[in-house]
């Protein structure tokens, strides 16, 4: 848990230094970009990102305010909605990846040999 927290904090610092939003934004945008049609229902985003529903709702509000996502009615009576990534959201995810990829390499990859990284990935895969 400490190692995870240290790595995530370091990545967050890299995002902040680059003037980018927090890692949670990337996670949501990435799941939407990967999804068919660039859209998911909020409960699907919650399951894929492991963000708590109350945090996710506020995050979607912020993403929508920045025009990175938009909400679309799911059915005629608008009880449900899709969260849809916009072109601006796709561009932001790409911009964030330019920092995130090297940050992962610096804070994780550079500290493990190829063999250690494979062993760690194998061990962690048993838990999920």
Span between N and C termini? Answer: 16 Å
Structural class: mainly alpha
State the order of secondary-structure elements, H for helix, E for strand: HHEHHEEHH
Q: Which consecutive residue ranges, at least 5 long each, have pLDDT under 50?
A: none
CATH class, anyone? Answer: Mainly Alpha
Proportion of beta-strand residues: 5-15%
CATH superfamily: Winged helix-like DNA-binding domain superfamily/Winged helix DNA-binding domain
Largest sheet: 3 strands, antiparallel
Taking all Cα atoms into account, the compactness measure Rg is 16 Å
Number of helices: 6
Q: What would you call the shape?
A: globular
Strand order of the largest sheet: 1-3-2
**Any idea of the CATH topology?**
Arc Repressor Mutant, subunit A
How many structural domains?
1
State the oligomer. single chain
The average pLDDT score comes to: 93
Can you count the beta strands? 3
Could you estimate the helical fraction of the residues in percent? 55-70%
Overview of this protein structure:
It is a single chain. The chain has a single domain, classed as Winged helix-like DNA-binding domain superfamily/Winged helix DNA-binding domain (Arc Repressor Mutant, subunit A). Strands 1-3-2 form a 3-stranded antiparallel sheet. 64% of the residues lie in helices and 9% in strands. The longest helix has 21 residues, at 87-107. It contains 6 helices and 3 strands; from the N terminus they run ααβααββαα.
């Amino acid at each position: 848990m400490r190692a995870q927290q240290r790595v995530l904090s370091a990545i967050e610092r890299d995002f902040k230094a680059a003037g980018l939003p927090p890692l949670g934004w990337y996670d949501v945008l990435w799941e939407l970009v990967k999804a068919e049609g660039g859209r998911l229902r909020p409960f699907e985003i919650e399951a894929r990102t492991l963000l708590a529903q109350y945090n996710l709702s506020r995050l979607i509000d912020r993403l929508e305010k920045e025009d990175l996502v938009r909400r679309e009615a799911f059915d005629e009576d608008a009880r449900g909605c899709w969260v849809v990534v916009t072109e601006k959201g796709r561009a932001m995810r790409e911009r964030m990846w330019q920092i995130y990829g090297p940050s992962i390499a610096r804070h994780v990859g550079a500290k493990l040999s190829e063999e250690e990284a494979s062993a760690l990935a194998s061990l962690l895969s048993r838990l999920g």
